[in-house]
Design a protein that fits this description.
Blueprint: H1 2-20, H2 26-39, E1 43-45, H3 69-72, E2 82-90, E3 106-115, H4 120-132, E4 144-149, H5 159-168, E5 176-179, H6 181-184, E6 185-187, E7 192-203, E8 221-234, E9 240-253, H7 254-261, H8 271-284, H9 292-312, H10 324-343, H11 351-362, H12 367-371, H13 373-405, E10 407-408, H14 410-418, H15 424-433, E11 437-438, H16 440-450, H17 456-459, H18 471-491, E12 497-502, E13 507-512, H19 519-534, E14 538-545, H20 546-551, E15 565-573, E16 576-582, E17 597-606, E18 609-616
Bound molecules: serine (SER).
């Protein structure tokens, strides 16, 4: 009870504090952004899953544009040509950097898109209006500087963007930097829609010392918004082809803009972290903001547990494991636990306490969290229990080795991994803290000898990537629809897609089902799909509201508060309806061209999830 009263007081104090300081909350800011773009004719689309569909090159959704790639390449979007969203994102390329003031693995990206509609001038004018108009964010115009693409052998200097800033917006030329591709170009690493961008920076230093020119080396100029003018399609071998349509893709990180608007020194002081940090303070009896070592540990815990919760709580839930995405979740949780220990958190288990706060904070924005809260907590508890048992002994082992040999051999690093559950990245981080070396190459040699962990998960392949829309992958995409329908017919309606990964050579498909499929069931699925192919069923597409899609029994995810329009792909001939599924496309027109469908493997993917690998022959 006392706890309750205390929490109540903290909550109310916090509300009061925000009011007195005239702060804008994250919910208000998110809503303001959507309202602004809605008023400018954009449809609000919901955040997509953190786990991209049909994209073999990437582990997580890294930007708001990610789920929109097919539309940027020319597919028609059911909501029209102007879209706006807030997208949950995970960037894991530098997990070990998290702990300072600026890095996050989980963040939300506010974005607006023009799919072949407006282009540079309108995009820039709208960004400027939203940032500076007293009606919207009312930021100080003098504190804004921008950069544009300087041009190189592949694409010319962005004169148009430069002129718009200079002549239409009236920014002083000295505050318009011309920067190379490294700074002012955006696209996913593996290719697809891309183009020059213009970035907007805000001066976060002394208000009396606003420089009259922009220098991108000065960290006090903080990038707040990126407007990408997508006019190219990056093909294999890096060749840029003009896109059918000129698009705009903009992205603004919510955590960062919230800190800026509220004049806070770091993102972790915003309300997106406030309650979480209060909880960590309470669990550890330490205060945020007093010393850097404590700050670092608190930020790591706040960021990592939040990220893990969003990944586990996604409707395509990923659970901790030793491969791919699961390995990232494991790394996040284990790194947070290690820093929890360093911070002196004694309660066990404790990560679930943070989960309750995160779920509560985001409950009205990301409905899936509340829905999956029990699952999230049980997964966190399991992982925490596994790791807490070995962490202490592992650390002792590390210390012993350190004293004995002053470096960590491949064998020891492998032992720390195998026996004590230390991800290699954790061993490296510990060693770095002590200024000693780790024989990482040696570790991988031991590793390869012993088991098969996808190295990609730790080698950073997930920085960005793009579904390849080649003819072959489109075929596999349609095959995935046929297979899901066949699985439902054979196993029952509980079967739901958990994820798929398509390359030009094969289809990998994860779905909810509790037990191993029998040889007979596999055979039935194969022949149902092959029959559909032989009958040359026709693929058709219709646009409708999510409610209508539900009513007609389409397969898909129906969590959304916007009642937005979706595309439903039906595979049928006359009365013979084989599959109806919500999907962005693209698909083949008739399934006769798919060839012969063959299941190569059926195995467990994680608890309650099976995985099928299949090919077209
Ligand atoms: N795709 C761009 C980014 O992530 C703009 O949204 O910065």
């Amino acid at each position: 009870m006392r706890e309750k009263i205390k929490n109540y007081k903290i909550k109310n104090y916090f509300k009061y504090y925000l009011k007195v300081k005239n702060m804008i909350t994250s919910n208000e800011l998110r809503q303001k952004y959507l309202d602004f773009f809605k008023a400018k004719g954009h449809s609000i689309i919901p955040s997509a899953s953190l786990i991209p569909d049909n994209d073999p090159t990437v582990l997580f959704t890294t930007a708001g544009m990610h789920p929109l790639v097919p539309y940027l390449l020319g597919e028609k979007h059911p909501e029209g040509k102007r879209l706006t969203s807030f997208q949950k994102c995970i960037r894991t390329s530098d997990i070990e950097e998290v702990g300072d003031k600026t890095h996050h693995t989980f963040f939300e990206m506010l974005g607006n898109w023009s799919l072949g509609d407006y282009f540079k001038e309108k995009s820039i004018a709208m960004s400027w209006e939203f940032l500076t108009s007293p009606e919207w964010l009312n930021l100080d115009k003098n504190k804004i500087a921008v950069s544009v693409f300087a041009g190189d052998n592949d694409a010319p200097f962005d004169q148009e963007a430069f002129d718009i800033w200079k002549n239409k917006i009236n920014i002083s030329e000295k505050k318009i930097a011309k920067l190379p591709k490294k700074n002012n170009w955006w696209g996913l690493e593996s290719g697809g829609p891309c183009g020059p961008d213009t970035e907007i920076f805000y001066w976060t230093g002394d208000a009396n010392k606003i420089p009259d020119s922009f220098n991108d080396d000065n960290d006090l100029w903080v990038e707040i918004w990126n407007n990408v003018f997508m006019q190219y399609d990056k093909k294999d071998a890096g060749i840029l082809e003009p896109l059918k349509q000129q698009n705009v893709d903009t992205g603004m990180g919510l955590e960062r803009i919230l800190a800026i608007v509220n004049n806070l020194a770091d993102n972790y002081q915003t309300d997106l972290f406030k309650n979480i940090i209060n909880k960590i303070e309470q669990l550890s009896n330490k205060k945020y903001g007093i010393n850097e070592e404590t700050n670092k540990a608190i930020r790591i815990i706040a960021d990592h547990i939040k990220a893990a919760i969003f990944i586990i709580g996604d409707y395509k839930a990923i659970t901790p494991s030793n491969t791919d995405r699961g390995y990232i979740v494991r790394r996040l949780i284990r790194r947070a636990i290690r820093f929890g220990k360093q911070l002196g958190i004694n309660q066990t288990p404790w990560t679930n306490e943070i989960a309750k706060i995160v779920v509560n904070d985001y409950a009205n924005i990301y409905f899936e969290l509340q829905k999956n809260i029990n699952f999230i907590i049980s997964q966190l508890n399991d992982e925490e229990e596994k790791f807490s048992k070995t962490l202490e002994n592992g650390l002792k082992q590390f210390e012993n080795q350190k004293l004995k040999v002053k470096s960590i051999s491949g064998q020891i690093a492998f032992d720390l991994y195998q026996t004590y559950g230390f991800p290699i990245e954790m061993t490296k981080e510990l060693a770095k803290e002590d200024g000693i070396d780790v024989d990482e190459k040696g570790f991988w040699e031991y590793f390869k000898k012993h088991q098969e962990l996808s190295r990609t998960a730790s080698a950073g392949m997930f920085k960005g990537g793009l579904a390849d829309a080649s003819e072959e992958t489109i075929k596999y995409h349609t095959t995935a629809h046929l297979m899901l329908a066949a699985l439902k017919k054979v196993l029952g309606n509980h079967v739901a897609q958990k994820g798929s990964n398509i390359t030009a050579e094969r289809l990998r498909f994860d779905f909810l089902h509790n037990e191993k499929m029998s040889a007979e069931q596999l055979q039935q699925v194969e022949s149902l799909v092959n029959q559909a192919i032989e009958q040359d069923l026709i693929v058709s597409c219709e646009e409708m509201t999510l409610d209508q899609a539900r009513t007609i029994g389409a397969t898909g995810v129906f969590d959304s508060k916007y009642g937005e329009k979706v595309k439903v792909y039906t595979i049928s001939k006359g009365d013979n309806i084989f599959s109806k599924e919500i999907c962005g496309g693209p698909h083949v027109n008739q399934v006769g061209i798919l060839g012969k469908f063959k299941i190569k493997k059926e195995e467990s993917s994680s608890a309650g999830v099976r995985r099928i690998k299949a090919v077209l022959e």
